[in-house]
Amino acid sequence: MSARAEVLLWAQRVTGRKGATAHQILEIPTGANSDDARDAFHKIARMAHPDLHRRTLEPAELELVTTAYARAAAAYQEIRGVRMSTGRIRTIRDGEIAAPSAATAGTGDPPLRKPVTGPRSPPSTSIAPPNKLAAASEEPASVGPRMSARALHHYRRAELALSRGDLAGAVLLLRMAVASDPQSAFLRSALSEVEAEVTKKP
Amino acid sequence: MAVALGIDLGTTNSVAAVATPTGVEFILGARGERVHPSVVAFPASGGVVVGSDAKRYRLSEPEHVVHSAKRFIGQSTRAPLVQLALTGVHYAVVEGANQQPIVVMRDRRMTIPEISAQVLRHLRRAAERQLGTPIEEAVITVPANFTDGQRQATREAGRLAGLDVIRLINEPTAAALAYGFGRDRDQTIAVFDFGGGTFDVSLLRIDGEVFEVLASDGDFFLGGDDLDLALAEHLAGEFHRVIGIDPRPHPALMMRLRMGAEAIKIHLSDHAAAEGEIEIDMTIDTQLGQRDGGSDRIGSLPFALTRAEFEERITGYVERAMVVTQQVMAAARIDPRQISEVLCVGGTTRIPRVRQRLAEVFGREPNIAIHPDEVVAHGAAIQAGSLTGNLVTNSGMAARDAVATAGHSPLALGALALPEMAARRPVLLDVNPATLAIHTAGGYTERLLTKNAPIPIERARVFTTSRDNQTRVEIDCCRGEARRYADNEPLGTLLLDGLPARPRGELHIEVQFRVDVDGILHVRATDQTSGQQQEAHLQVLGAPVPGAPDATNHPAGGER
After folding, report:
1. Least confident among A56-60, B296-300, B362-366, B372-376
2. Which of residues 449-508 of B touch A (CB under 8 A)?
3. For residue B391, what pLDDT is reported?
4. Inter-axis angle of helices A34-48 and A3-16, to 10 degrees?
5. Of A50, A117, A121, B505, which has the fewest beta carbons less than 10 angstroms from its beta carbon?
6. What b-and-e string marks burial along B248-281, b requiring 16 or more CB atoms within 10 Å of the CB?
C-alpha cells in the first residue's frame, strides 16, 4: 500500500469514529499507559504529520489528515494529561473528568451554572444580558477518562487534597479510587504520579 | 526551483539561511556579516535604511530609529509589558485601531508588522542577490511563548514583505533541529535561549527524526537588552558623579551610554576587566540638566569595571532565568540528570556567569560548540528545505563535501549525506504555548487545550445555556492558567445568535478549539440542535485587522 493510501485510510478511520476514547483514537489497548501512548503517537507522527504531506495531498485530503492528526494529538495529551499538567500538581482539574453517568441535561446542577456577568467590554454589555455558557452536564464520550461514580467521588476528593497540598491524603484517596475502579488506567497513572511526588519530597 | 528562506527574526538581530544541496548557506550583509541588526531607520535625509547601516543612525537621530520592534508585535499597547518596553525606546509609539501599537515617524504612521516587514524585505533582497533567484517562501521562527496574536502579526509581516510564510516554528525547536537532525539520536535535551529581548527554555526529546517538545516556558521580557540597560543605569550614575550632569533626560546621551554598556558587556565575556572611555563627543543643553549656563561640550566618560562587578549587577536577571528553567523541568517531571545535552542559544549565553549557573543547574557543561546566534536560522533553513522538498533535489552530493565558503555550514552539526536526508524528513512536534479556555457562567474558565499540548491539535466540548430562553451566547476565549476568567488574558469573543428558545440546559453548543501547525487558534461553535455553526478567527487585541486597510497613510515605502 502506498504511503498516501495508508495515511488517507488511517485518517478516515480516525475521523469516522464518533465518541471514540483516547485509547481508541491512538489504536492502543485500554490499559495502555502514557509511554505506550507516546510510542503510538510518534508512530502516527512519522506517518501522518501534516508537514509530510503538504506537497503530495490534495487540499481536502490534507485537511482530513490534519483533522485526524489533531484529534490524535488531543488523545495523546489526554492520556498523559496528569503527568504533563504543569509543575503545580494541584492543576489536575475537573475538565479532564467526564461525568460518571451521563446525567440528563437540565437535571443535575453543574457547579459552573450560576449566571453571573463577567467583566465585559462596555459596548456589548449594554446590548446583551449575561450570555455565558454553563459547562454541560453531558459530556461527549470522547473527552475525559471514564471511571465509576464511586471512583470519581474519591478522585475529586483527591484533587481537593492536592489543592491543599496534602499529598499523603491524596495518595490514600487515589488508592481508594483505584480500588473502586481497578480498570481505569487514568487513575492508576494518577496514583503513580502522586506517589512519585511523595517520594521526591524529603 | 523554489527556494524557501529560513529566518530567525530576532528582537535585536536577525539571521537568514537556506538549505542547499551542499549544506546550509547563510545570507550575508554588505560587509560579509551573517547577523543583521533588526533595526529600521528613517533618516532625516529621507528613505528607509535597514540592518547594520541603520544602526549608525542610533547616535545621530535616535528618535528616527526603530529597534526592538519584536517587543511590540501583535500586542495591545495597553499590555503592561508593552508599557514597560515603551520606556526603553526613543521613537514615538501611539495606539491605533484595535489597540495596536503604531510607530510615528514624522508624517508616517506604521504598524509593527510593517516595521518587521522592512527587516524581512531587507533579508529577502539580500538573499535574492546572493542566490540569484527570486524568493517567495519562508519559514520564520518565533519565541516558543509567543501568543496567537504575536504569531498572526509575524505572519502578517511576512506577507507585507512579499513572502509566503509556509510555517512559523518555535525558536528552540529550530535549534534542536539544527543540533539533532540526521544524527539518529534518542535523547532528551534542553534548549536554553537567552537572546536580546526574550528568554525561554525548552525540553525536547529527540527520537530519531521526531523532535518532540516536552515542555517550554519563558520570560517574555528578559534579555540581553535588560543587561545593557542595567549597566547603562550604572554608567549614568557614574556620568552624573564625574561630569556633574544627569544624562537621563537626554535620549541621545543615554543611547550612547547604552551602546557603551553593550560593548563593555561583550568585552567582559572574554576578559576579566574592562577599562577605558566611552566616547560621547556631544554638546549637551545643560538647561535640562542640573547646572546653569547654556551648553557643555562633553568629550568622553572614563570607566573601569571588573567582570565580577558586572555579574553582580546582572545577577537578578540571571537568577530569573534559572528559576524559569527549574520550573520547566519540574513541569515536565524531568530530572536534570536525564538531560544529555544543554544547547545555548542567543548572545546572552556567552556571558560566563550564565554558563556557570547553567552548569550548576544541569550538573553538566552546556554545549558551546554550536553557534548561539546562528543555530536558530540554521534549523529554520532545514525545516524550510524539508517543507519545500528542496532537501531531496540534486541528491548524491554529501554535505561533508560542502565548500567552506563564508556563507556555508555543513547541514546539521553532524555531517549528513543528502540521500539519507531524503528518506528521513524531520517531524517537529511543537507545542501549544499556553492553556486556552473559555469563560463559563460564574466567572470561571473551562480549559479546552492545555499548555504544552502537541500541535496541531483539536478538541471539542459541549456546553449549555445558563438561562431559560437564551437565544444568544457569547463565547469569551482566553489564555492562561487561572481558574477565574478575569485573571487570564482575554483573546476575543465569538457570538452565536438566533438560537431557538429553550429552557436552560437544553441547548447543546459544541465549542471546538483547534490550534494549527503555526500555533494559531481557530475557534468554532456549533449549535447541535439546529446545526447552526459559527467559525471565527479570533480577532486578537493588538493584532492587525484582517482585510482592513493598513494603518499607514503613505504608499508602501521601499527600502533605499
Report:
1. B296-300
2. 449-467, 470, 472-476, 481, 485-486, 493, 503-506, 508
3. 59
4. 130
5. A121
6. bebebbbbbbbbbbbebbbbbbeeeebeeebebe
Burial B477-486 (b: 16+ CB within 10 A, else e): bbbbbebebe
Known catalytic residues of B?
8, 70, 171, 193
Model pTM score: 0.75
Residue B399 to chain A, least CA–CA distance (Å): 22
pLDDT digits (tens, 9 = 90+) for B46-72: 889 999 999 888 888 888 999 989 989
Within 8 A of B493 by CB-CB distance, chain A residues are 124
Q: Do A112 and B444 touch (CB under 8 A)?
A: yes
**Which of B323, B458, B484, B526 best probes binding to A when mutated, by most A CB atoms within 10 angstroms?**
B458
* Per-residue model confidence as pLDDT tens digits over B526-545: 888 777 776 665 655 555 55
Mean pLDDT of B93-105: 89
Contact yes or no for B210 and A119 at CB 8 A:
no
Copy the grid coordinates of residue A6.
495508508
Q: Can you tell me the distance from the alpha carbon of B106 to that of B458, in angstroms, rounded to the nearest whole number?
A: 46
Q: Where are the alpha helices (DSSP H) in A17-131?
A: 22-26, 34-48, 59-79, 81-84, 122-127
- Residues of chain B numbered 97-126 and touching chain A (CB < 8 Å): none
Number of helices (H) and strands (E), helices first, in chain B? 12, 28
**Is it true that the peptide bond before B544 is cis, omega within 30 degrees of 0?**
no
The residue written with cell numbers 478516515 in the block is A12
Q: What is the pLDDT of residue B380?
A: 95
Please report where in the chains the cell 556567569 appears, as a residue: B353
